[in-house]
Amino acid sequence: MRPPSPRGTGSGSGSAGGAGSERNAAARAPSRDRRFARSMSPRTAARISSIWLCSFTRPRFSPPEVRFLGQSAPMWDKLGTPLVGDVVRLERLAQEHAAALSAAGKDPEVWRWMVVDNVDDWLRDSFAEEGRVAFTTIVNGVPSGSTSYLSLAPEHRRIEIGATWLAPAAWNTGANAEAKLLMLRHAFEELGCLRVEFKTDEQNNRTRRALEALPSRFEGVHRRHMLGRGGERRDSAWYSVIVDEWPEVEANLERRLAERRPPQ
Predict the structure, then answer these.
(1) 136 and 87, same structural domain?
(2) 134 and 40 share a domain?
(3) 10 part of a folded domain
(4) Which position among 26, 47, 201, 248 has the lowest Cβ density within 10 Å, counted as fewest Cβ atoms?
(5) Three-state secondary structure along the chain?
(6) Which residues pair with 91 in a beta bridge?
(7) Which distant-in-sequence residues (6+ apart) come within 8 Å of 228 by Cβ?
(8) Is residue 149 part of a domain?
(9) In this predicted model, what pLDDT tens digit does every residue of 190-201 receive, in sequence order?
(10) Range(s) of the domain holding residue 37
């Protein structure tokens, strides 16, 4: 006994001719995806195809291979370039910095708002963590802390500056402001970023005041955003600077630093 022929579910007779007609009609009617594809220009279609292929064949961050909308982005290969100012030099974190950083990070107050609570754990994690570019902050020739590029999203031309700490001896010296100036300038002018973001504990008023003084824009509090040490739940205050705001931020930071320089 032959199995029954496939039939439609509508109110038609279900004859072979009717089923064939339904199939032919379905074939003639373009799907939503076909209609969308036909509406795109060849250039747009090529870009989307490149992005789709890259998402399967490349890691999320792999300079200089990573692409923005189908275009190569070799500038991200410069992510860890040394950055030099008047009193601050940022060098890629290396083992040769470990002893000096261990001494700089002995004060428990440094770690009050950090994910770890001591410099030894920080050093261990910083050397092991992937997806982050950590710098040693050298102030007047002395390794005095660290800061990082993290949350790397070259496909969106976005980056975060964070994991920042300084020895108390470098507080209120302008070192943090100059480090931010160097990193923001590098992000916007060399890496081609459209957005740089910052996150800190909602209760960390010292850091929040420093971010507002850049000035960066407060974007709200992300409740229960992350777990801190010991499983503490942290609400994070988010800030950002976008490329349109960079000239104003740069001018403000340069003015602040100029006011600190001794008269000549």
Answers:
(1) yes
(2) no
(3) no
(4) 26
(5) CCCCCCCCCCCCCCCHHHHHHHHHHHHHCCCHHHHHHHHCCHHHHHHHHHHHHHHHHCCCCCCCCCEECCEECHHHHHCCCCEECCCEEEEECCHHHHHHHHHHCCCHHHHCCCCCCCHHHHHHHHHHCCCCEEEEEEECCEEEEEEEEEEEEHHHCEEEEEEEEECHHHCCCCHHHHHHHHHHHHHHHHCCCCEEEEEEECCCHHHHHHHHCCCCEEEEEEEEEEECHHHCEEEEEEEEEEHHHHHHHHHHHHHHHHHHCCCC
(6) 136
(7) 115, 201, 234
(8) yes
(9) 999 999 999 999
(10) 16-57
Q: Give CA separation, 119 vs 70, 107, 108, 126, 232, in Å.
A: 41, 9, 9, 10, 19
29 vs 234 pLDDT, higher one: 234
Q: Are residues 183 and 126 in the same domain?
A: yes
Residue of higher predicted confidence among 28 and 179: 179
pLDDT confidence of 34, banded at 50, 70, 90?
A: very low
Q: Is residue 187 part of a domain?
A: yes
The two three-digit tokens of residue 45, written as one number: 């279609």
Q: For residue 249, is it within any domain?
A: yes
Both 138 and 218 in a single domain? yes
Same domain, 113 and 227: yes
- Whole-angstrom Cα distance, residue 208 to residue 235? 13
226 and 196 fall within a common domain? yes
Does residue 208 contact residue 238 with C-beta atoms inside 8 Å? no
- Shared-domain flag, residues 53 and 90: no
Number of domains within the chain: 2
pTM (predicted TM-score): 0.71
Please state, in angstroms and rounded to a whole number, the distance separating the CA atoms of residues 29 and 136. 61
For residues 111 and 241, state if they share a domain: yes
Closest CA relative to residue 132, chosen from 165, 110, 161: 161
Q: Which stretch of 98-102, 162-166, 173-177, 221-225 has the lowest confidence by average pLDDT?
A: 221-225
